[in-house]
Each structure stands twice: as structure tokens, then as C-alpha cells.
Amino acid sequence: MNGGRPVRKHLVSLYVANNPGVINRVAQVFARRGFNIDSMVGSESHDPAFSHMNIVASGDERTLVQILKQLNRLVDVVHARDITGEDVIERELALIKVRCPPERRAEVLDIAHAFRGTVADLSETALVVQVTGRTEKVDALHRLLDRYGVVDVVRTGKVLMARGEEVT
Amino acid sequence: MAEAGGTLRCTGAQAVVRSLERQGVKHVFGLPGGAAIPLFDALVGSSIRLVQTRHEQGATHMADGFARACGEPGVVLVTSGPGATNTITGIFTAQMDSVPMVVITGQQAVGSLGMDSFQEADVSGIALPVVKHSYLVKNAADIPRVIREAFHLSRTGRPGPVLIDVPKDCSAASIEYRDDEAMRLPGYRVPDEIDGAAVEQAARLLAAARRPVLLVGHGVVISGAEAEVRAFAERMRIPVVNTLLGKGGFPETHPLSLGMLGMHGTAYANKAVADCDLIMSIGARWDDRITLDPARFCTGAVKIHVDIDPAEIGKVFAVDCAIVGDARAAVAALDRAGRPGDTADWIARVEAWRAAYPLRYDRRGGLKTQHVIDELYRLTGGRAVVVTDVGQHQMWAAQFYRTDERFHWISSGGAGTMGFGFPASIGAQLARPGELVCAIVGDGGFQMTFAELATAVTQKVPVKVIVSNNRYLGMVRQWQNLFWDNRLSGVDLAGNPDFVKLAESYGCRAFRIRRAADVRPVLEKALAYSDGPCVVDAEVVKEEDVFPMVPAGASLADMLIAPPRKGRGR
Predict the structure, then answer these.
(1) pTM
(2) Which residues of A touch B134 (CB under 8 A)?
(3) Is the peptide bond prior to B548 cis by the omega test (within 30 degrees of 0)?
(4) Within 13 Å and on the Cβ side, how many CA atoms surround B111?
(5) B188 to chain A, minimum CA–CA distance in Å?
(6) How far is C-alpha B553 from the geometric centre of its chain's CA atoms?
(7) Is B168 an active-site residue?
(8) B56 tagged catalytic
(9) CA of A33 to nearest chain B CA: how many angstroms apart?
(10) Can you name the residues that pair with B27 across neighbouring β-strands?
């Protein structure tokens, strides 16, 4: 499909006009070139006429360059950049539901606390841990908790911001 | 409309028409329906001429032909639901060939959207992949700004179609007409400055080249860069090839012109491109009909790419030098910077190919489409605006009707839309009244949109419609014959109507060419008739193939100049 070129995850940051349908327009550029969108976060920016979108997508480098150009060609896209590997503030929030009878609760909580996780919900048989941080940290906690039986995970996807005074 | 206290109260529909008038629109192509009644009502008494069509697809091709014949956006007005979805093929056709077009669709009331209401289609969603941009109006007061934005987007930068969906409560609403609101296009940029360093680099590469070729594409025609390209090619002494849509960007009768390259290009154009050491594309996008297998296209040659759309740079393959910007400005800058290299030997070689491998056809053995086109070229002195459909006749027209002027060649290139040619010729004639417009179509494509004969007759457009009638989908038959062991499938058009009777039933003049000897006298009669449209049914031989041909996915070196030996396949 991609001529054997290596596939990797890319982090794309977009600043778009806050118009109906803008998500469709953006998603379509990825879909047309066979890129899978792993996560997509969209939110109104400081100026409500615009939105930030952060997209993690997998595919080869050369196609991604093409996709970025096609994204920038969209009338509603102010800018689209590949910020993979750039030094930006990156956070993700996850809610992880673990099957957890009372006798194992202390053990699970220990692990959660080691990751600065908090308890979002607690019942007789289950526990929901809320954790924030870089994607790798969330992944690590997810893996550890899976030994106890993770029932469900919901993640926000990456939320990004440039450091210093630079605007994302 | 009522003027009161310096402001103007009108309906949303009247605002649409008023804004169109302000954009200089003289023609609107379309067909009404329930949700578009307010919009059509507003046309009554306006300065805009409604060209009522028989089908919405026809309306879009007419608007497209209009735009390609004069450079101004063609405007389409249709109703919601099926009326709107019928425009999609025409919008796609315009998008693929960067044609400016504004399509206004009626829509159900805002409150009914998404409710599966009668004739409600999410047309702005459906059209998304094939428009430059689209709008769904939700507030009638936005109409003047939206229309201004739509025309701006449609005609600037790389042109393209823009769709505006207008719900009927917006077109019926009463608003204060204000057209002073600023455009809101923060994400829209048109490259305006040519990068001097890139121009310098290109000039150095050109000066060093011994076997350079200029590749002229549609961008030259769109930008109006013919004079600059010509001056540049003449001063630098560089042979010029053109794409199908680049016809008119550089005179094909010019001594430096090698005509069209690619799948059915001239042998000398393809040989020159296959052997060049530098190729500079101006306003073309390395389409697969010219590069065939991109990995084997001009592998040893330096590639320079001039394009206004940054997304085209590096899309097909990496190039050595890219100049992003308008073709006219870019070539003018190059002409200032360029120093002619020594191309004398190269031109001599190219001329030898031109002499050795001319385009040819055999006038014996039945009536040939090439003969009809060749004769049409002679009789019209090459001055007609030629509009084609898609298929074999299109390639023969590109080969044998040489184009010298901008806006004189109109053809669906990227989309390859059958059914395009005839309605597009109506639009072209309306854009260029008083000029000779000839549509060259096949019997297959003509039948897809011939309902517009009614439009041609009522509009009294004197287009000459020449039907190359071989009772086949000829190009597909050619492929099945050459590459599929002549296993013909779905290409025999048994059941064709009698095109002469068909045309006459619309009150249209019609002629027939049966034999080679008829060609000249019948064409003369058709060309002399100008009291409305006429149809010429040319009953050509059934099995004739277009050559030269480079098979899809091959390299230019694999070109077949003449039919392969019989036996295989036949």
C-alpha cells in the first residue's frame, strides 16, 4: 500500500476556523490517503472563532508531508503542522476501570498513587483510576493495572501546547 | 426589493441574485424545484439570463464550458435533493481540472435538516471531497458575504468549484442587504510572491541543460501566461510539449511545439520527453496520463515544477527545483533570469523525430474520425473553439485539431467525464457569442446528455455537434482489444438512435456523413448553418484504434506508434 515505506505515528497540530463540518474536511484528507487516525482532540481556542485540533495518525513520512500540504490547502485550516518529536507540553487523561475485589484494593491503589492517579469511582467490585500525563505514562499504568483485570479504558487523546510564549 | 433610509430590504433569494449581479454574472445555468422556487423567483426581472437546462448535470457542464471559454466562474442554480446530487459529476469534473464554478443549491428549511425531509440531501457533505470549498447558509444575512467569498475562492489561486447550499427559509427571509462585511477566510492563502532563489536555481539548471523540454499545462491557460511562455521558449530555444488541457497555452503550430505528450501524445513529443535531460512543467501536475509509470518517467532528467498549488509539489515524485506561484509571474521571472543554453543539436534531433514519426491515419478503408477532424481543422482554419467529450474522438481531436489560442480547447481531462462535451459547448458558445464553437463527441457520451439539445435549440446557440458514431464505446473496446484478448464486454452500443432524426425531433438541423467523400461537403454545409445548433452524425468505421499509444503504467519508451501486428488478440 505504501510501497514498503516505514509506518510511524505522527503528531499533527491544527488551528482551524470553528465552522461546522471542519472535522469532516480534515478527517477526509487523512482517510483519502489511507491514514488511520489514532486519536483526535478538538476544542475551542482562546478565540472562539477558532479551534485547536490535535491528531495522532499512523502512516509513512512521505504521504504525511502530502497530507499536511492538503490540510493547509483547506480553506478552514489556518495552519497544520507535524510536531512529532518537537518539545511541546503534552498531556493525556485516562479513566481506567479495574476489576477489583476489596482484598486487592490496597494493591491497586498503591500502583495508581505511584502514577499520581486518583480514584474517580469505587464500588464493591471495581475501581476507576483517573490519571494524567504523557502518553507513555498512561500506557505504563494501563499495562500494570491490566494484571488485575482492566474492564474498560477511555482516553482523551493528546492535548498539546507550545512552550513559552509561542502560540500553538 | 425596497430601498428605505439608505439601506435595502430584500429577501435572502433577492440578496443572492443581487450579489451575483455584483459579481458580474450574466448567465445562470439550472433547473428549479420546490426548495429553489424563491431563488428562481428572484431571477425574474433581474439582469441575469437563466439558461434553463433539462438536467442538472447538463447545467454544471454548461457552466464549466462557460468558465473554460472565458475564465470567469460559471454559475449553477438548482434545487435540493436529487437536483443537488445531480450536480456532483459536474462539480467533480470542474474540481479535477481546476475550473472556477459557483453552484447554488436550494435546500429544505434549516429546521428540517437531518430529518429526512422531502428532497433533503446533505449536499454540502456529499460534495465535500470534490469542491474547493462549500457553504451551508444558516443565516440569511450572511448571504452577501458568502457569495463574495465563494467567487473569490473560486477564481483565485488554483481555481475550483464552490458550493453554496441555501435553505428555503433563508432565501425567503427578509434581510437588510449589506455587502460591506469583510470576508472571513483566515485559512485561505494564495501564493503571491515568486521565490527568487528558486528562480535563480531553475535558471542555472536551464542554462546547463543540453536537451531541455518545457511542459505546458492547464495552469498556463488559466493564468493567461501564453505570451510569457512563448517569449521564454523562443528566447531560450526550448522545444515545448503540452498536456491535453495545456492546449492553447502554447501555439501547437509554432515551430517549437511538439504537441501533446503522454498516453496518446505525438511520437515526437514522447520521444523528446523520454530523451530530455531537463523537463520543466509549468502549470501541470505530472498526471498519470503523461507520466504513466512515474518511477520510469524522465528518470535521468532534471525536473523543475512550477505550480500555484504547493500540494502538487512532490506529490507524484520529488523534483529538483520547485517554484510555487502563478505561472505568468513565474515564467516572467524566469525569462528575466534565464540564459539560453546550447540547444541547437537537440532541436535538430527533435526535428528528425518530427519528420520520421508524423501523426497519420489512412483515408482508405471507410470513414475515419481522424479524417473528419482533420477536415474540420482545415475548413475552420484552426480557429474554432473545440469542445470534446471523452474517449477516442477526444484523443484524435487533441492530435489533429491543433490549438493555437487560449480558451479554444475545452475537454474533461482529469475526470474524463463522458457527457461533458455537448453541454460544455453550449456554455462555451454563450461565453463567446459570435465565435465558431464545435463540439466533437462520441455516440456514447452524446447519449448521456443529449437532452440538452432542447437547451441548445431554445438558447439558439449555433454550436456544431459532430458525433463520431462508431456504435461502440471505442476507447474501452480498444483496450479490450489490445490488452484483454479482444474479449469485448459492455462496449457494443446496439440500440443507438438515429442521431439525425433525434436532432430533428428537437427542431435542430442535422446532417449525416456516410463516406469519406461526404466529409468536406457536409462539414461545409454544417459550418455555413448558423441559425441555431446543428448535429453532424458521422458514421465512422467501427474498429479503429488511437495511436500512438503508451499503455497505462508503462514508460514512454514502450510507446506503440502503430498497431501491433495482428494475430495476438484479434
Answers:
(1) 0.95
(2) 21
(3) yes
(4) 1
(5) 5
(6) 24
(7) yes
(8) yes
(9) 12
(10) B49
